[in-house]
Amino acid sequence: MLILTCPCCGVTGEETEFHAGGEAHIKRFGPGSDDEQFHSYMFAKENAKGVHFERWRHNNGCGKWFHAARCTTTLEVFGTYSAQTYEPPKEIKDKISARRPGWSWREFA
Amino acid sequence: MSTRLAAGGRLLNKDRAYNFTFNGKRLTGYQGDTLASALLANDQMLIGRSFKYHRPRGVVASGAEEPNGIVGMGEGAKFEPNQRVTTTELFDGLTCASQNHWPSLEFDVGAINTKLSRFLPAGFYYKTFISPRPFWKHVYEPIIRKSAGLGKAPKERDQDKYEHFYAFSDVVVIGGGVAGLQAAYAAGKTGAKVLLMEQTAHWGGRAPVDSAAVNEGKENINGKPVDKFVDEIVAELEKMDNVTMRTRMMGAGVYDHGYVLGYERVNDHQPDAAGPRHRLWRVRAGHIITATGAIERPLSFAGNDIPGVLLASAVRDYAINYGVSVGDRTVVVTNNDDAYRTAITLKTLGLSVPVVIDARVLPEDSALMAEAKAQGIRVMMGHAIASVKGGKRVTGVEICSQAGEGAVLETIDCDAVAMSGGWSPVVHLWSHCGGKLVWNTDFAMFQPDVDKPPLGADGNGFVTPAGAANGALDLGGILADADAAGKAAATATGHKVGKGKAPTAESVEEAPMAPVWLMPQGAGIKKRMKAWLDYQNDVKVSDVQLAAREGFESVEHAKRYTTLGMATDQGKLSNINGLAILSDALNQPIPQTGTTTFRPPYTPISLAAIAGEARDERFQPIRKTPIYGWHEENGAFFEPVGQWRRPYCYQKPGESVHDAVKREINQTRERLGLLDASTLGKIIVKGPDAGKFLDMLYTNMMSTLKPGKCRYGLMCNENGFLSDDGVVARIDEDTFLCHTTTGGAETIHGHMEEWLQTEWWDWKVYTANVTEQYAQIAVVGPQARKTLEKLTDADLSSEALPFMAWADITLGDGIPARAYRISFSGELSYEIAVPASRGRELWDLLLAVGAEDGITPYGTEGLHVMRAEKGFIMIGDETDGTVIPQDLNMQWAISKKKEDYLGKRAQERSHMADPKRWKLVGLQTVDGSVLPDGAYCVAEGTNENGQRNVQGRVTSTYYSPTLDKGIAMGLVLHGPDRMGEVIDFPKVDGTIVKAKIVDPIFYDKDGEKQNV
């Protein structure tokens, strides 16, 4: 059972306090997009082996959504950060680079 | 025979005798006995039968690894199957019975299987019962099911209490042997908060037994006997406030990020004591030390499963701990020095050890061997057991050369065999969460690869193995390793380590063991078919070899094909021996074969402990509306709706459910009905962008709704499927109140928050789920207006408050209310929302003033029938997660003007626009009967699986009291274009119901009744 820290209320809690919401930083494609774009947005999710960015909600706590940067193989948590952003903040990326040299954003090393 | 010795028994209190029964036989033991030691003390060697061949089974081990000694314990509400006798503490009045035999333990009909074992090899079931195909369902499966299953499920409800306990600790030490004690001490000294748990009732593990086995204090710690060291360190630990110690508590599992499950058997040994029987500890650990010891391996020789063949360590445990001799004449067979401790122990106690059969050929005698010889014990090096003689009890052994094929050199009479194939560290808890293993060639065992521990949230290892569990098998090495582990765990959790040193120990030096996986080395098929690996599931050396020959090369496949290690002991004894045989058959080294996966719990834990307090009224919260008390007092027949309990109908004395529903509907349609609609979801959406936000959430346009008005809306998910519906009321320019379905309130609120927080976070909108803040009562029927007017001065006329409008009014004694003129029944209807605290008051008032018009409360079934009569859809009936609004002919509720809403793009996909999608219609049976719920409408021909083609299905079906016949809605291929056509719905009994496709609105199509 994972431990995560909610960046909104600051509580460090058990996984049962949170709800996983799939991949983070997905761009929405609505009306006007072609089938390929919509398919990719709706269904083609990353299934990374290693560094991954996920959406979580503190649903048995403050109710806020946030993002977590995590390694899917070792379960290391590099950090959690606001969901109101288009890409991971620099300090999170730096932390990942320190732990996983050569890694780069969106390459899902 | 096995018997109680006059001397010995370090764990016994011989002043306190306990009576117990086994299969109805009255027996006696002592306080401190395990059930196993007490049974052996009474010469009860035969305890059960094996699973497949029903072979006689006796105790083989003395701890958690025991595969054979399992019994049904207790009676009635206290009955529990599959209890291990080796881990069950004896108490006065214990009753137990053997399992898996018929008609009796001594004479078992199923034992015929052992004579047929040639015809029941690995994979027997898969091979034999595959054809002819239909036989599986009708012939084979019923017969196999009858003989399957181990033990019997209890028939009565469990009367005991169970609880969960949450704990947090810097360091959790699993295992209370000398390693665990030393690790806990080293960590505790730094001030770290330590939790130490031991699965048995005693501290010290097996070191006191092993050291007691060698004479004259040759094995000691700090110059003291090991027993004394244990007493002293336990006393020291008890003095530390930062250390919590628990016996009878097993580390059941290690999970992600340092989560540990502890299984405390609080009262198993004193079933009449107060308090819970079991307690499940849910522990968050900063660092975990697994000081879980090691388990001795059996040797694989013909007849190694005959009762009386035990592990060598178990034989000396029974002698030293419980003063029980397993036999008068015990042959010891080994591939290592440790088993000599057993020979020496028995000889010292005055028992006979005719020979130690040692598979090794050593250049010179080791210290323990020399000591055994000095006591006059005969030692045969390079020899093996060709086969064990006996049926329900060992009568002798035939001896051969280990190097040969088993030609018998000598036969020796004996009534017990003590075997040792070396030791395997208990790596289970290390491995549960991903700790890796390495193969130790010297000791032929897997041990933790300390460079690859399970990793925590910070990316650092959070488990450290200690002592024998880490591959240290000598006393000095164990203590040094445990001390280092304790200090490392304390450091890892931010504590400063002082200068304390590990205790020093003296122990007897042991000669190297030799890996021996089969005895004798060249054993032929007849011997291999009698050399057991898994005693409980009857897996033999020959089965694993057969599996390898048939291509089950992966260890996980071989396990499932042979059932090796799949019994209740999960292969604690059998796995390494099985792996070695498999590796040999595949001609590859053991590490290349690898192990199967170690999964929690370490030994079975009770389901009741997992449930804890979550039973009966505490199983889940029950949500009650403010009017719940009235429902209870007035004959409500409740149904669960999510966590709510809603009245299905209100039964009058002597009235059937069906008649009650009929009465409620007729009364509502003709005069006046009353519905507790408080469970309806109510979400306030407020802010300058609230209209824009609701335009995205609903398929219709909500931003154009005028304050004071209501609009019915549909919500889809981003994949286009209908997820919820309800009426939206605009309160003011900035504020909307969204009604959701009863079950949907929390989900829809979550759905709104998700989009607001993660996609449109710059929109100025705030949401609040106020479902429980309001009681909501629907006043329904032709007399609704007249009744409400008695409670208010407000103008409720259709001009002042028309259909689909709302108004704030005051009712009765100043109850602030909001009246929505909305209708889910098709009648004139006002839904009145009041503060929850005044809900019951209003309900009572309405009952009083409505009495003269026959006011009749109705339940959810009345609600459902009335909405179906009107052709209104119900989320969850007409929708199932694959239905889009267009399927329900609800294009009218989809805005053409909006550029975007959730689900719009998805609904543009070709499959969603396919004219062949089944569409909603009404269905009316030709004979007036009620269609079966969920029935399919068949079409001509069959599909590729030979099943009838289908062209539609029933989504809602009821008896309509208003029309006095069955009515239904369904989704049918080209349905709206086929009005009047009669289609076929086969029933489960094979008969067919014919139904005509009709308009789904069965009652008041023009809405004249609701719009007055």
Automatic annotation (TrEMBL), chain A:
Gene3D superfamilies recorded: Folate-binding superfamily
GO molecular function: sarcosine oxidase activity
A GO BP annotation: tetrahydrofolate metabolic process
InterPro entries to which the protein is assigned, alphabetical: SoxD (IPR006279), SoxD_sf (IPR038561)
Recorded superkingdom: Bacteria
Pfam families per the UniProt record, alphabetical: SoxD
Name used for this protein in its record: Sarcosine oxidase, delta subunit family
From TrEMBL, chain B:
UniProt signal peptide: none
Record-linked Gene3D superfamilies: 2Fe-2S iron-sulphur cluster binding domain, sarcosine oxidase, alpha subunit, N-terminal domain, FAD/NAD(P)-binding domain, Probable tRNA modification gtpase trme, domain 1
Record domain FAD/NAD(P)-binding: where: 170-429
GO biological process, one term: methylation
Keyword DNA repair: no
Database matches in InterPro entries: 2Fe-2S-bd_N, FAD/NAD-bd_sf, FAD/NAD-binding_dom, GcvT/YgfZ/DmdA, GcvT/YgfZ_C, GcvT_C, GCVT_N, Sarcosine_oxidase_asu
All copies of domain Aminomethyltransferase C-terminal, residue ranges: 919-1004
Alphabetized GO MF terms: aminomethyltransferase activity; methyltransferase activity; sarcosine oxidase activity
Family named by the database record: Belongs to the GcvT family.
Protein name: Aminomethyltransferase
